[in-house]
Structures are given as C-alpha cells and as structure tokens.
Amino acid sequence: MPNLEVKIKDLILKNPVMTASGCFGYGEEFMDFFDISCLGGIFVKGTTGSKREGNAYPRMAETPSGMLNAVGLQNKGVDAFISDIYPRIKDIDTHFIVNVSGSTIDEYVTVASKLNDLDKLNAIELNISCPNVKEGGMAFGTSCPSAIAVTEAVRKAYHKTLIVKLSPNVTNIAEMALAVEGAGADAVSLINTLLGMAIDVERRKPILSTITGGLSGPAVKPVALRMVWQVAKAVKIPVIGMGGIMNAADAIEFMLAGATAVQVGTANFIDPAVCPKIIDGIEDYLIRHRINDVNELIGVI
Amino acid sequence: MPNLEVKIKDLILKNPVMTASGCFGYGEEFMDFFDISCLGGIFVKGTTGSKREGNAYPRMAETPSGMLNAVGLQNKGVDAFISDIYPRIKDIDTHFIVNVSGSTIDEYVTVASKLNDLDKLNAIELNISCPNVKEGGMAFGTSCPSAIAVTEAVRKAYHKTLIVKLSPNVTNIAEMALAVEGAGADAVSLINTLLGMAIDVERRKPILSTITGGLSGPAVKPVALRMVWQVAKAVKIPVIGMGGIMNAADAIEFMLAGATAVQVGTANFIDPAVCPKIIDGIEDYLIRHRINDVNELIGVI
Amino acid sequence: MKKKLIQDLLVVENKILSEKYFILHLQSPTPLPEILPGQFVQIEVKDSKNTFLRRPLSIHDVDYKTNTLKLMVQVLGEGTKKLSLTKQGEYLSLVYPLGNSFSINDNEKALLIGGGCGIAPLLYLARHMNDKGIKVTVLIGGASQSDILEADEYRKYGEVYITTFDASLGEKGLVTQHSIFNAPTFDFTRIYCCGPEPMMKALARIAREKGIDCEVSLENMMACGIGACLCCVVETQDGNKCTCTEGPVYEFKYLKGW
Amino acid sequence: MKKKLIQDLLVVENKILSEKYFILHLQSPTPLPEILPGQFVQIEVKDSKNTFLRRPLSIHDVDYKTNTLKLMVQVLGEGTKKLSLTKQGEYLSLVYPLGNSFSINDNEKALLIGGGCGIAPLLYLARHMNDKGIKVTVLIGGASQSDILEADEYRKYGEVYITTFDASLGEKGLVTQHSIFNAPTFDFTRIYCCGPEPMMKALARIAREKGIDCEVSLENMMACGIGACLCCVVETQDGNKCTCTEGPVYEFKYLKGW
Ligand SMILES: Cc1cc2nc3c(=O)[nH]c(=O)nc-3n(C[C@H](O)[C@H](O)[C@H](O)COP(=O)(O)OP(=O)(O)OC[C@H]3O[C@@H](n4cnc5c(N)ncnc54)[C@H](O)[C@@H]3O)c2cc1C
Ligand SMILES: Cc1cc2nc3c(=O)[nH]c(=O)nc-3n(C[C@H](O)[C@H](O)[C@H](O)COP(=O)(O)OP(=O)(O)OC[C@H]3O[C@@H](n4cnc5c(N)ncnc54)[C@H](O)[C@@H]3O)c2cc1C
Ligand SMILES: Cc1cc2nc3c(=O)[nH]c(=O)nc-3n(C[C@H](O)[C@H](O)[C@H](O)COP(=O)(O)O)c2cc1C
Ligand SMILES: Cc1cc2nc3c(=O)[nH]c(=O)nc-3n(C[C@H](O)[C@H](O)[C@H](O)COP(=O)(O)O)c2cc1C
Ligand code: FES
Ligand code: FES
User: Fold this and answer.
1) What pTM does this model have?
2) Could you check whether the bond before residue C121 is cis, i.e. omega within 30 degrees of 0?
3) ipTM, 2 decimals?
4) Fewer beta carbons under 10 A from the terminal one: N or C of chain D?
C-alpha cells in the first residue's frame, strides 16, 4: 500500500483529499453518503464575526462546465459555530479547518482568535478572496499591502496552522503568495472562484442578484492549475490546490503542478460521494505507476 | 427587418459578428463553408514585424468546454502579409482588421505604420495580450504604463481606427481599458485568452511545449462577460466583446453586457459555418423581441 | 441510519405523454428508503454537453412493493430534453429523497392545486392522504387541454376539477378563477399547491382572505440539493433558508413578501 | 467550386470489430466531393461531456456509387468511446475531406504498412492504386491477433503480410522486423505508412538505408482541421507546417528530426 499521508506545516493529513469551503457544509450534509472521516480534511463554510444572511436569491447560475455562485458568506457567525457546530463535529476523526472571512482586519482577527482556543481545530484558512461580498473579501486578496496587513494581523492572533486562500483575480498570483508567505502564512490555498457573470438573454437581465459571482468547476481547472504551478515555484510553504477537481486524475494534476494537498469543491454537488472515489483513485494510480509515496508526485512539473 | 449595422468609430459594420484573430486564418480557409463577406469583419492572425515560427508542437490541449493554445504568433510577418495576402483579400466586401503584435514598441509601431498605408484596411487591433510569447505580448497588456506607452506610440503612427485588445490576466481590467482609452485607442476588444495549463497525468508532463497556454472557448465566457461589462461601464469608446461565443444567445449576452460588436473565435473550429448562424440568430432574436435595431441591445445591463 | 442515497435506478418505463411531458418510472435495486410526499430527487443528466449540474425533480409517485418511483417531467431546456430521450433499460443516477414534505393532519380538508407540471408532487400526496383516510380535492390548471396531465390518476383519490386558459378542458381561465373558490360549500382547511410562482402567490392571497393554510412547493434553482451550497435560498421570516432542506414545501406565511 | 463541406451523414452501419475497434459506414445525402487517399474528416462527437473539439479520423474507404465513406476507429478516450456507441440511422456531422494525400506514381512498387488502427487510410489507398493498376503489398502489424483488422479487405488489392508482437498471427515481432525487409527480392520504391510515431520513424530509417521513398501519415493533435488555428504543426525543412493542410501525409525527409 502506498503512503497517502501528507503534511501541511504541523497538520498531518491522512491523505491529500480535502473538501473546499462552501461546498461541503459542515460535513454533516454528506454523512449519509460516506464516512467523512476518510477525508484528509474538511474546510467548513466561510465564517464571519457575526451572523450574515448572504446575498439575495438568485445566487447560482449554471455555466459551461461550471457554475457561478453569489452566496456571499451566509453563515451564523463564529460564536454560533463554536457553540452549536463545533461540539457536533469535534470528535470526527479528520481535520476541520474553518474558512475565516471578514470585512475588516479586526473582524478577521476576532474570528481567528476565537478559533485559536478550540482544542480540536488545528488550522484556519484565511479567506481573503471571496468575490461575493461588497466590503473586504476579495479586496484584501487583490493587493499585496492589504493581503500582508490582514495576514500579519491574524498571524499574531492565531498560533496554529495558518493557511491563506488566494484570489485568482489578480495579475500576478505568485507575488501575492510571496507576500502572504512573508507575512507569516504557513501554507497557501488556491484558487478561490474567478469573478464571472451570466445573463438571461430572454429576460435581458443578469441571472445573479449581485450581477457578478464566482466561477468554479472544471471550466476553471486550467487557470487553477497554472496558478498552483506558478505559486508552487515561487514559495517555500506548502500549496493546497483546487479548482475544478472532479476525479483522481484532476487531483493528481494539481499535485504534479506543485500542490501538497487538494480541495474538492463543486464536484461534491454533482456526486456527493466523489471524495472517497478520488482517494481510491489516487491510491490506484500510485500502485499502477509503482510509486510508494504520494509525496513523490508533488511538484514533479 | 431589424437594423444590424453597428459602428466602431469610423468603421461601419454590416452586423456585429466578426471573427477573432488566430481563429479564422485569413478568412480563405472558410470560403468553402460560407460567403465570408456576410461577416461584420474579420480579424486576421497576429502579425509581427518579421516572420515567426511560433512555439514547438504540442500547441494545443483540450480542456473542459474549452481549449488551451500556445501557437505563439506564428506568421509570415507584416511584409509578407502586405505583398501576398492583402492583394488576395482586399476586395472581399467586409472589413479585414489586422491583429498587430510585437516584442517591442518599435515592432508594434513598424507594423502599424506599414498597415496604415493599405487602402482597404481601415482598422488594426493592437494585441497587447498574447500570453504565448516570451517577450512583449501579454507583458504590455498587464501593466498600465506599458499599455499606455505602446498605445500612444502606435496612435502616432496609425491614423485609422485603432482597437486595443486587452488581456484578461489582470486584477483590474477597467483600469487597463481606461488607460488605453486615454492613450488614444478608438475601441477596446476583450478578452484575449486566460493563461492556463494542462498536464498529462500518465506521462507526468505538461501537455503544451510551453507548459502554459491561452484558454478559450465557452469555459471562459462567464469571465469574459464580466470583464466586458466592467469595461463598458468604465470607458466611453466602443467595446468589442469575445470569449466563448458559440451561438447567437452568447453573442447577445455580450451586447447586453455592453459590447457594440463581438468576435467569434474557438467556435469556428467546431462549426466552420457557425458565424452566419449567429448573424441569423441575432436577427431572429430581434424580430421575436420586436426590437428594430441591434444597437438597442448594447449595454442594457 | 442513512436517509439519503446516491443510486443508479433502472428505467422501467419512459412514458411519453406528449412532446412536452413524460413520466420516468424508475426502479431501485434495493428497498426504497422512506419517501414523503413533496420530496424530490436530484437526477444526473448524462451525455448532455450543456448540463453540468443535476436537475431537481419532484417525486410524482412511489410504490414500495416494486421499489419504484415516478418522476413527471416537462421538457424545458437541454437537460430535460435529454432526459426525455431516456430508454427503458437504461440507468439514471439519483440523489434522493431530498427536502421536507407537505404537512398532513388527520382532520384536514385538503385542496390540492397544480399548474401544468406542478401537479407532479401532488399525486403521491393525494395517495398518501387517501391512505390516511383524508378526503382530497384536486384542481388542475393548464394553458390548454394538452397541459392537463394524468387527470384520471388523480381521480382515484378524490374529485378533480380542471381549468384551462383556452377553455379546451374544464372551466376557462386560471386555477384561481375556478368556481370552487366562490362556491358556498368551500370548506377546505388547507391548500397544497405547486406550479408557477405567480399562481402560487395568487393562491396564497386567496388562502389569506379565506383564513386557511396554504403550503407552496418552490422550484428554486439548485446546485447540490442537500444543503451544502446555500444557493437555493428563499427569504423567510427567519432569514434565508435553503429550499432543498427546509423546503421545497413552505407554509406561505413563513415566506417573506408572500 | 467548394471542396470542403460540413455535412450531416447518415450512419448506414456501425460495424463493431471488437471492444476496441469499429467501422462507421456513413452516407452523404448529396454526391460525395472528390476524396483522395490519405485525407481525413473532422467528426463531431455529440452528447459527450468531455469532448469539446471535433475528432480527426482518416477516411478508410470511399464508394462514390453509394455516396458512402468508411471510418475505422480505435476506442481511445471518451470521444471515440462515444462514437463507438453510434447506432445505425443516426447522423454524424463531418467536416471533410481534409488534408493532402499520399503521392501515387504510375510505376510505383508500393509497400503499405499500418500499425494497429494506423492501417485505416491504407485501404482506400490500396484500392486507389489498384484502380490505377499499381501493385500493392500490405504489411499490417499489431500487438496481437485482435489488433489485425480487416486483413481480408486488403487482400483484395495485393499480398498481405502480418506481424504480431505475441506471435498470435503472422510473423512475431514489430513490422520493422518482418522478413520482407531482408528478402533479396525487396524491390519496393516507396513505403506508405501510418501508425505510432516510433514505428513510422523506424520505417523511415529503413527507407533511408534502402534509399527509397517513404510517406508517413501523422496524427498530430488538431483543433480546427482546416488550417485556421495553427495548432497541428510539425517541424519541417521549411519551418512549422500545418498537418491538417500540408499533411497529414509527408515524405519523411521533409520532416525535421526524422
Ligand atoms: C424542488 C424542485 C422540484 C421540481 N420538480 C419538477 C418536476 O417534478 N417536474 C419538472 O418538470 N420540473 C421540476 N422542477 C423544475 C426542473 O428542475 C427544471 O425544469 C429543470 O431543472 C430544467 O432543466 P433543463 O436543463 O431542461 O433547462 P435549463 O435550460 O437548464 O433551464 C430552463 C429553466 O429551468 C430552470 N432551472 C434550470 N436549472 C435549474 C435547477 N438546477 N434548479 C431549479 N431550476 C432550474 C431555470 O429557471 C431555467 O430558466 C423542479 C425544480 C425544483 C427546484
Ligand atoms: C489526421 C488524423 C487521422 C486520424 N485517423 C484516425 C483513424 O482513422 N482512426 C482512429 O482510430 N484514430 C485516428 N486518429 C486519432 C484520433 O483522432 C484520436 O484517437 C482521437 O481524437 C481520440 O479522441 P478521444 O476523445 O477518444 O480520446 P482523448 O481522451 O481525447 O485522447 C486520447 C489520446 O488521443 C489523442 N488525441 C485527442 N484529441 C486529439 C485530436 N483532436 N487530434 C489528434 N489527436 C488527438 C491524444 O494524444 C490523447 O492522448 C487520427 C488523428 C489524426 C490527426
Ligand atoms: C457555492 C460555493 C460557495 C463557496 N463558498 C466559499 C466560502 O465561503 N469561502 C471560500 O473561501 N471559498 C468558497 N467557495 C470557493 C471554493 O471553496 C473553491 O475555492 C472554488 O469553488 C474552486 O473549487 P471547485 O472548482 O472545486 O469548486 C465557494 C464555492 C462555491 C461553489
Ligand atoms: C488557436 C488560437 C490562436 C489565437 N491567436 C491569437 C492571435 O494571434 N492574436 C490575438 O490577439 N488573439 C489570438 N487568439 C485569441 C482569440 O482571438 C480570442 O481572443 C480568444 O480565443 C477568446 O475567444 P473565443 O473563446 O471565442 O475563442 C487566439 C486564440 C486561439 C484559440
Ligand atoms: S441546492 Fe445547495 S443548499 Fe440547496
Ligand atoms: S488543426 Fe487547426 S491548423 Fe491544423
């Protein structure tokens, strides 16, 4: 049996397959379909300082080989996460990683420090790349100074593994990655969604209530792979790759491009049991290619 | 019969449907399939100061709802265009617009001034966004100062309609559009391809000889639409939209988002007779919606 | 206990009702899970270039004896068009059963109203109520005769009234214009409806006037169907709620702006 | 005069040779355009989620009397898999005829060599040469007996030799190891080959040694197939050339690195 274990700083993942924030709820939604403890990790929904209702319906549009969403960080807030959700999930044998979002640096810091005290949570993912909120969100992730500012501030408040999630809506993603690495990130994850738009020609109106939204799914995979490759070449910290992963071959592409682990997002909507298939598929690939350790795939290209 | 005529500065197009550079050869390749003079215009291949061989094979990878290319501006150079190709196409009753490319500002200027003297060519498209060449190309299109520099220089040398083609691989496309508008562009066209990558997992190698290439096709349509919308809101000059247009509905989406005309690229590979269908489809749409003039669609959103 | 499953179901029959409508009769290889009236499935559309996501479809009828269920579908776009070409013997992947269900109280006097293909979930509801001894009345509306689907099936469970816009069948007009609403004998305690939103909103207004309950089944755009993506929300008195888990059936008063 | 067309052709037959190979027999509604041996089609793969572009396939045979042509296809990925499921009576969209053709000289002594499905274009070539009174010899190579396709068809036009890697049919080994090359009677003036690149390169070396001509048919990745995208280039003595217009057939000496 080949080794599937990988490491993101102090976080030891039983395998490199994790689920992407906003695409897997709190994991509970998928328990009917498979044993979620088989996952390398679960990135839970974007969590903010206080409750958010998100954007108005319609929030979704199907696009060629992908979808746009404009959920806009609907969540019950970090306190509700800690009191209601954390107790339910904390004993599940996988890593839960909270996707931390906010409109101000203070909000990011508040959320991160509250999460720092939770025993069973060993990492957060700083979402400086959400395209679906008016303030903050992507704004932090599209300029180096603000990405540095928010990362540094959170770094001071959070003492476990800090992953920073990058926005693909930038000219130079490697520069952004280097900036947050310098500011103390233990790892980077990418890509968040590409800013896109869809129009209903019959009604002559945008489909989303917010006009623009975030594109995900296989359509973005070539862009995501390119960015992961560029970032992995630039930084020393581990890279977590995502964007359009539908099967084991896709996941392996990201690892070859330099990702230490991957996240699966939109694919969960189409096949809620896709993740265990991806894990098995990676194992089969390693056996077929006589590779003993999944780490040998990382950054081959 | 609704009016289909639109104007890009001094260029009067019989309809808003044109073909994208690098996707329609010099038009001749398609003459077996339909009468190309029905088109609003034809953007010919990227043309440089001297002959270029382009990149090594493989130059193409199929991706979900799209393709990557890394042709790298293979062309015979502007002089060969003028002596060999121009005489063959000049009397065809549509606009031929040369896509002007280069590695240095001087090269752009040289090509543009040579084209300025051709009677039957009334516009050029400045390609400051090609992701597939080592020098120049996209570099000009991803920073405002260099975009301004090249546009200003060419503006001095070229006295007919100057269209500048923008790269989507930037943080703020509206800013780029404003920059080239200020520098004298008569119109902007977008998007060129998104920088992407594909990997052959069995061989554990990139598919393209250049590792990265340009993504086109329906996969990019949501991003392209969003950028056209952002740019059209920002600038006063006409916008020519493209990216993933496969049918009349797609073309209309771009016009609703603010494009005065559109270009069809990758779709020509799948259906070499797609353009007349798009023209007819737009006409049908106008009739069905009782709209007398295609100009009424522009920028409704 | 697992409640939701992802499973390939055998197509026992694809009953073509017309160019526009068809009924898929699907069989599970294992005993069906418990399915409640109003629940839906997320169906995969194979081999359809422009259908990326699954498509939500109401469960039209259920037969635990044969482990089969039915879906009644209207051809709208490429996904449903492709599904309409499904042949007996093929398999379709379903995620099911999803969503909440219509409320059923023993002493209910139920008026079931469906517009076009919106009647889909009401057959299983009618059967369910019948099994519990509840009398149902069904009102079906459509643009024309050809949009009134399977009325005889509904007649098994109660009286069926029909309206068509072009008067080709039943009373002329919209469901809301049916004489039943002005009859002195109107004594229904709850309306259960599914169909175009304007129709359901109009019925909700009638219910409000008459002071009776009214449950509506929404057809919000969905991506996951299982509460993971938060795309399918509707604004309620308690904020945004996922229609795939807290709906698709809502008491209209719970919805904002109804 | 239009030479290339885009057209829906009727599937007269889909002859399944094995799990891996099949032959599509397609009929044009109008008289076929002139088709030369070595030319290919770009075929649309409908209803296949992961097949975005058309797929290039050689023209295997042509019958002007019935306005039909044949394609011999190997199942490789999703596109060819989907094509293998095509049923008689369906229509397939083709852009054709594309590319150049094999050269044919009256006094040629032709040795046609195909590896696996690479023999596809050689049947029409053999027939064409036969019609012109040129004697052809055909050498077919494959991994195993099941990869030697339609040998009898080729026998109509000349002698057929076979090699298989596992010795299940004909001589054991690769085509290049066939005894024909060492026979004292070897008097061919030109090799025409199609198959895996290493095979064609090895044949080119043999041709060079023997001082004879050798035409190879390349299978470069294509997007448009009509010379518009410049994706399918091969490096030649004159720089990069499009395989879809200046090929797929090249005299090997024209190719760089061969
Ligand atoms: C809970 C629920 C139950 C439903 N039950 C039935 C039923 O029993 N029978 C039936 O015929 N239809 C039902 N629908 C509607 C059905 O899902 C859509 O008609 C179908 O998804 C259209 O797909 P398409 O590819 O044919 O059309 P498309 O071309 O994709 O779209 C046509 C229209 O359908 C709607 N639509 C598209 N995708 C979705 C989606 N993922 N979710 C919701 N709406 C969408 C859009 O408004 C669009 O304008 C139900 C919808 C929901 C949410
Ligand atoms: C001029 C020409 C003639 C050909 N003639 C035949 C023939 O007669 N019979 C036959 O079985 N095959 C022929 N091929 C090869 C055939 O085109 C590929 O096997 C087919 O495209 C694979 O498609 P797929 O979707 O099944 O596989 P995919 O999963 O797409 O790919 C499998 C492999 O096929 C190759 N391939 C994919 N797309 C293309 C493309 N657009 N162009 C070229 N290669 C591609 C790639 O190397 C890939 O690794 C020919 C190719 C060319 C260029
Ligand atoms: C419906 C939806 C909601 C999302 N919500 C979040 C979020 O809250 N925080 C975040 O960082 N990313 C969010 N994302 C982005 C995903 O985590 C992921 O970065 C993106 O979808 C690309 O991966 P995919 O193509 O596999 O889906 C969301 C994506 C989708 C589709
Ligand atoms: C094979 C290929 C070659 C291209 N060559 C050029 C080029 O020479 N100059 C240029 O400005 N754009 C070039 N493009 C980009 C297209 O003109 C267009 O901007 C892009 O493909 C998006 O449109 P589409 O999705 O309709 O193809 C090329 C695109 C493709 C696919
Ligand atoms: S459709 Fe995903 S939460 Fe309802
Ligand atoms: S495949 Fe487009 S030029 Fe050959």
Assistant:
1) 0.96
2) no
3) 0.96
4) N
